[in-house]
């Protein structure tokens, strides 16, 4: 019993449980999908509690992480996705799905994952903001360059930034002014982990049929997804160590260079081109979960005292 209770606090077990539950019993995702956005907002608010308000008072301190966020998300990861897409994908709809994946900003999940993996939260927060601000220009530019004029409206990106970054950040500042932040700190790790359970379960559950009905179609897609997470992550980590970056900053840079906003990319692919175009983001979500588990195996578990 004690071992089971310990598992309920373990982020790797929770993510793997969500993945398996989504594949085997994913019908409930139809009922939980409306909860994903508010739950992500809660995750972002809890994660942002660790960001000091002082950092936003120094533009010079903000600039470097924001530039790094743009370079890692668009030049390194986006460029790599486009190159592998050109080399490995022939199906037009799937190809379009990968273009959309390359065009979107970083995954909002890089912020809570930074908390879970012990990275530099302030660095990741600023870098993510930089990625979303640049995305207002770069996302439509990349989409138009490769796909034509049917692309996401910049206002949608702005709305995502407000809902999942700005409002949670403001909410965390308000919590820090009260005693609630201290009370939540003890349970923050568990709350983030189980909120992620619902998000991962829902994403996998909504797309579970793909994995059973089109297994061979998934092979080249999975190859790109795994290369741009595990492969890119390995290369970025080695480069960060050669540059003698602090371990916490290395975690942040690796996440920024391996994770895209899969939810936005999947939604765009589905709306603009059909179910096949949503496959790259869906498969990449699975790769993200497996990669997060891999990284988590090398980190100390979060403190629940």
Description of the structure:
The chain is mainly α and 305 residues long. Helix 2 packs parallel to helix 11 and helix 13 runs antiparallel to helix 14. It is globular. The C terminus is likely disordered.
Give the structure's gist in a few sentences.
This protein has 305 residues and is mainly α. The chain has helices spanning 2-7, 11-24, 29-32, 36-48, 59-88, 92-103, 110-117, 121-147, 154-176, 180-185, 188-206, 208-213, 218-242, 247-256, 262-272, 275-296.
How would you describe this structure in keywords?
mainly alpha, 305 residues
Largest sheet: none
Secondary structural class: mainly alpha
Give the helix proportion (percent range): over 70%
Using only CA atoms, what is the Rg? 18 Å
Low-confidence runs (pLDDT<50, min 5 residues)? 300-305
The run of helices and strands is: HHHHHHHHHHHHHHHH
Task: Summarize model confidence as the mean pLDDT.
Answer: 85
Number of helices: 16
Distance N terminus to C terminus? 19 Å
Q: Name the overall outline.
A: globular
Count all strands and give the number.
Answer: 0
Q: What share of residues are in beta strands?
A: under 5%
Outline the fold blueprint.
Layout: H1 2-7, H2 11-24, H3 29-32, H4 36-48, H5 59-88, H6 92-103, H7 110-117, H8 121-147, H9 154-176, H10 180-185, H11 188-206, H12 208-213, H13 218-242, H14 247-256, H15 262-272, H16 275-296
């Amino acid at each position: 019993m004690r071992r089971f209770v310990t598992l309920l606090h373990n982020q790797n077990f929770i993510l793997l449980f969500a993945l398996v539950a989504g594949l085997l019993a994913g019908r409930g995702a139809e009922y939980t999908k409306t909860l994903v956005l508010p739950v992500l907002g809660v995750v972002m608010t809890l994660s942002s509690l660790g960001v000091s308000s002082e950092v936003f008072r120094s533009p010079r301190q903000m600039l470097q992480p924001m530039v790094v966020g743009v370079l890692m998300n668009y030049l390194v990861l986006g460029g790599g996705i486009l190159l592998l897409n050109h080399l490995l994908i022939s199906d037009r709809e799937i190809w379009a799905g990968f273009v959309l994946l390359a065009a979107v900003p970083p995954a909002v999940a890089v912020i809570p994952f930074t908390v879970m993996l012990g990275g530099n939260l302030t660095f990741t927060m600023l870098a993510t903001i930089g990625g979303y601000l640049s995305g207002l220009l770069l996302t439509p530019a990349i989409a138009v360059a490769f796909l034509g004029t049917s692309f996401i409206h910049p206002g949608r990106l702005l709305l995502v930034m407000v809902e999942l970054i700005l409002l949670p950040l403001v909410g965390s500042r308000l919590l820090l002014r009260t005693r609630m932040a201290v009370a939540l700190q003890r349970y923050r790790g568990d709350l983030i982990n189980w909120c992620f359970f619902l998000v991962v379960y829902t994403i996998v559950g909504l797309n579970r049929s793909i994995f059973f009905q089109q297994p061979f179609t998934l092979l080249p897609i999975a190859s790109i997804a795994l290369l741009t997470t595990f492969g890119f992550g390995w290369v970025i980590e080695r480069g960060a160590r050669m540059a003698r970056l602090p371990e916490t900053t290395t975690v942040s840079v690796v996440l920024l260079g391996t994770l895209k906003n899969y939810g936005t990319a999947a939604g765009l692919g589905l709306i603009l081109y059909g179910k096949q175009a949503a496959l790259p983001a869906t498969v990449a979500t699975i790769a993200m979960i497996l990669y997060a588990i891999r990284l988590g195996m090398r980190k100390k578990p979060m403190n629940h005292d």
